[in-house]
Each structure stands twice: as structure tokens, then as C-alpha cells.
Write a structure and sequence with these properties.
Structural class: alpha+beta
Strand order of the largest sheet: 2-3-5-6
CATH superfamily of the largest domain: Outer membrane efflux proteins (OEP)
Number of domains: 2
Largest sheet: 4 strands, antiparallel
CATH class of the largest domain: Mainly Alpha
Number of strands: 6
CATH architecture of the largest domain: Up-down Bundle
Distance between the termini: 77 Å
């Protein structure tokens, strides 16, 4: 016996080791799906990571799975059920014997067993309406999942463009710091030569220090942008990741028509289609609730047998003699259900009305989003043109002010103001340029045409 227990223990341990090894392989495979610290992550890889790990997207997938289970349950409700019923009893009592005239104590055992099945033949089409309602809700959740994927990709692209913008802003601040540092060196030489007052050097040093602060702030903004992307991808925030910014085609331009954009959005937005599906589902819910006024017709079939020790016959003989079956059809007509059907129908109609209101609100939201995106695109183009003109003028102003200062005809205040205007204009150009790219590259998100499998940021 001990040998047997030992073998069983060894077998159990071996199985545990095998299962543990399988779980380890699964864990390694799951880890392989995520990003590793220090490994460069491209935009395309970030999109794929987000589609696998984004929490909001996972919740939308769970909603689809839940609704699919509801549809399966509604379909199975059309099938008959099958039950096995058994019961046993021990009877205690006294029996009078006619032969001897004595009262005898007799204990008997009995057993009943059988199978039964029932099916609903008609219930006012409630089961049909319930199935259609479940299918419409599943369709809505599937469309919600499609929109959730688009939103996830949209967020990743937004985060990446924020990182690119922050990188360009950092370059602007670094170039400004380099120019101010070089200017400080020149002023120091002029002060040492007695050509300029020491106050000019102090003022320039203050400007250089402010530029260093600008570089620090720009670096902070860049890191915050990376943190936002880490959150979108659901990666470990304790680890530093290297995100590779995609190449952006700044020269590509497009022209849009507001009416055409709105029409395309009404036809292709998944979230709008989901609300339409919910309106259809709520209409089916009204039908299911009203079915409570109709009679219910059902059919029941059963087959059973019994055994008792009181008869004295053998077990299998009794089962053979006592076997029998039945088929019955029942009709249940609702006469008074304490108003439950009326209340359910009223609630269903309210839900249908709410679904229609939600649809109208979603249509309004879609139209507003498309118009806002169109106006933002138009404004971004105008801002870029104005910022570029401002930058060109500020570059000339800096060159002229620097020449005048070196010649002794201008003041340091004029040069400092000209450089500040130049930095502001360069920063405005960066914001306007990538704002235009953002609105152009992701216009398909607002119209519902965004394909999560093929997303580019090059216009």
C-alpha cells in the first residue's frame, strides 16, 4: 500500500511539474507580446501593443463575448429540456395480518425513477423577440468594439504626434540656448575689451539662464508625452521605453468638403451604427414584453418506473411491470398577473424611447465632431502660414538687431526682444505644422473610415 501511495505521489508531482512548465511557457509567451525595456518601439508596433493590451479595448471585447453568450442562451431556449428524476423512501408502520390476526411491524423501501422533457410550443413569440433582441445587442457591442479599436489607434497616434511635437519644441529651445550662449560669449569679449557695459553681460546671462529653463521644461514635456503613451499601451510605467517617432510628410495637403465629410461619417461611423442597433434591440424588447398578454402552449413528455419492497417481487420485474409514460399539452392563459406584463411593457417602451434619444444625440455628436475637425484643419493651415511668415520676419529682425548691436547702433534690449519673438515664432510653427498633420492624417477617425490595421502619419 505504501508503494502504491508513493507511486501516486510521484505521479502527482510529475503532473504538477508538467503543468507548471506549461504555465511558464504561457507566461513567457505572454511576456513576449509586451515591450521590453530599452527596446525601440515603432509606431506600428505601438499600435499592435495597444490593440492587445489596452484595458478599454479588452473591456469592449468582454462585452462582445458576454452578448455572444446571451445569444447562445436565447437560441438554446427553443430546445426541449431533459430531466432525470429519482426518489427513494423508507416507510415505517404496522400492518394487520389476516392470516394470523396479529399486528406486524413492517418497514418498506421504495424507489421511483423516470425521465421527463418539456418544450414551449407558443408563448406569444416572446422567445423569438428575445433572440432578435440579443442578436441586435451583440451587433451593437461588436460595433462598439470596432469603434474602440479606432479610438485606441487614434489615441496612440495622438500620443505619438505629441511626442514628435515635444521633440521639435526641444530642438527649438536647444537652438535658442546655443544662440544665446554664443551671444553671451561675444558680449563677454566686448565687455572685457571695454566696448560694452557689464550690465549687458548680466542681462545676457539672465537670458541664457531662462533659455536653460526652457530646455528643461521642453524635456519634461517630452517625458510626460512618453508617459501618456505608456498609459495608452498599458505598459509598466516604472520602466523607460524608447519610442521611435515615425517620419511625417509635412508637404502633403488635402482638401475637404464639410457636407461630404458629414455624409461619410453618418454612413460609416461604427458608434452611430451601434446606437441604431440598440434602437432595433429595444423594439424587440417591447415585443417580448407584450408577449406576456398571449397564452402559453407547452408540451410535456415523461417515462418512469417504480420499485417497492412491499410487493415481494424481484427488482427488475417490478421495474418492467411498473414502467409507463405520458404526453401532455398544457395551455396557460393569463387572466390577472398583478399588472406585471403592463409594467414590463411600459418599461420596454421607455427603454426604446431612451435608445432613440441616444441615437439622436449620437448623430448630433458625430456632426459636431466632424465640423470641429474640419474647422481645426482649416485653422491649422492658416495658423501654419501665419506662423511661417512670423518666423521669416523674426529671423530678419534678429539678424538686423544683432548687426546693429555689434555696430553699437542698437541696444541689448532690442536684440533680446527680437530673439524672444524668434523663439515664439519657431514654437508656433512647430505647433501649427504638426497640428495640421494631425488633423489631416486622422480625419478618417472622425468619418469612421479609420482602419486600425493600416494607419500612417504621413498625410
Amino acid at each position: 500500500m505504501r508503494v502504491l501511495y508513493g507511486k501516486l505521489a510521484a505521479l502527482t508531482l510529475a503532473l504538477m511539474m508538467v503543468v507548471g512548465g506549461m504555465e511558464s511557457v504561457k507566461a513567457e509567451g505572454a511576456a513576449g507580446d509586451t515591450a521590453v525595456a530599452g527596446t525601440p518601439i515603432t509606431f506600428e508596433e505601438a499600435v499592435q501593443i495597444a490593440l492587445r493590451k489596452n484595458i478599454t479595448l479588452a473591456q469592449a471585447q468582454n462585452a462582445v463575448a458576454s452578448d455572444a453568450a446571451t445569444v447562445r442562451g436565447a437560441k438554446l431556449s427553443f430546445l426541449p429540456n431533459l430531466q432525470l428524476n429519482t426518489s427513494g423512501a423508507q416507510t415505517y408502520g404496522r400492518n394487520f395480518s389476516e392470516t394470523t390476526g396479529d399486528v406486524l411491524n413492517r418497514n418498506t423501501q421504495s424507489l421511483n425513477a423516470g425521465i421527463s422533457s418539456s418544450i414551449t410550443l407558443f408563448n406569444g413569440m416572446q422567445n423569438v423577440a428575445t433572440l432578435h433582441e440579443a442578436e441586435k445587442n451583440q451587433n451593437a457591442s461588436t460595433l462598439d468594439l470596432t469603434r474602440a479599436k479606432q479610438t485606441t489607434v487614434f489615441t496612440v497616434a495622438s500620443n505619438y504626434l505629441s511626442i514628435i511635437t515635444a521633440q521639435e519644441q526641444l530642438k527649438v529651445q536647444q537652438q535658442n540656448l546655443a544662440s544665446l550662449q554664443a551671444q553671451e560669449d561675444q558680449i563677454k569679449k566686448m565687455v572685457d575689451a571695454g566696448a560694452r557695459a557689464i550690465s549687458d553681460l548680466y542681462s545676457q546671462q539672465a537670458s541664457t539662464a531662462a533659455a536653460r529653463l526652457g530646455v528643461v521644461t521642453a524635456k519634461h514635456d517630452l517625458e510626460i508625452g512618453k508617459v501618456d503613451l505608456v498609459q495608452t499601451l498599458n505598459l509598466d510605467p516604472r520602466v523607460t521605453y524608447d519610442f521611435i517617432a515615425p517620419a511625417v510628410n509635412e508637404s502633403a495637403t488635402s482638401k475637404y468638403d464639410l457636407d461630404s465629410l458629414t455624409t461619410r461619417a453618418y454612413a460609416q461611423r461604427a458608434d452611430l451604427a451601434a446606437e441604431n442597433a440598440r434602437v432595433d434591440a429595444s423594439a424587440q424588447g417591447v415585443k417580448a414584453a407584450n408577449a406576456g398578454w398571449w397564452p402559453t402552449v407547452s408540451m410535456t413528455a415523461g417515462y418512469n418506473s417504480a420499485y417497492s419492497t412491499a410487493t415481494g417481487l424481484p427488482f427488475f420485474n417490478q421495474l418492467d411491470q411498473a414502467r409507463g409514460g405520458s404526453i401532455s399539452i398544457g395551455v396557460s392563459v393569463p387572466i390577472f398577473d398583478r399588472g406585471q406584463t403592463s409594467v414590463a411593457a411600459q418599461k420596454a417602451r421607455v427603454q426604446e424611447d431612451n435608445a432613440k434619444l441616444a441615437l439622436d444625440a449620437q448623430k448630433q455628436q458625430v456632426a459636431v465632431e466632424v465640423k470641429r475637425a474640419y474647422l481645426d484643419f482649416q485653422s491649422a493651415g492658416e495658423q501654419l502660414a501665419a506662423a511661417q511668415a512670423q518666423l521669416t520676419a523674426s529671423d530678419r529682425a534678429v539678424t538686423t538687431s544683432q548687426q546693429r548691436y555689434q555696430a553699437g547702433a542698437g541696444t541689448l534690449v532690442e536684440l533680446t526682444q527680437a530673439r524672444a519673438a524668434q523663439v515664439q515664432a519657431a514654437s508656433a510653427v512647430v505647433n501649427a505644422r504638426y497640428g495640421l498633420v494631425f488633423q489631416q492624417a486622422l480625419m478618417s477617425y472622425y468619418t469612421g473610415e479609420l482602419d486600425p490595421a493600416h494607419v500612417v502619419l504621413n498625410g
